[in-house]
Amino acid sequence: MLHWTIVFIVLALIAGLLGFTGIAGAAAGIAKVLFFVFLVLLVISFFGRAMGGKAP
């Protein structure tokens, strides 16, 4: 999941440098959503391991 976030951020940066603002905005939006989904899943994973008795 984090890999795709980085891919879309790089795509947004390249598109922005080349002047494709619509594509850059869309790629940045997708990267932002994927990043927050990744963070939520990370927090859920930490709490799940903590409740299971395993150290994170």
UniProtKB/TrEMBL annotation:
InterPro entries referenced in this protein's UniProt entry, alphabetically: DUF1328
A Pfam family recorded for this sequence: DUF1328
Keywords, sorted A to Z: Cell membrane, Membrane, Transmembrane, Transmembrane helix
TM regions (residue ranges): 6-26, 33-52
Cellular component terms per the entry's GO annotation: plasma membrane
Name used for this protein in its record: DUF1328 domain-containing protein
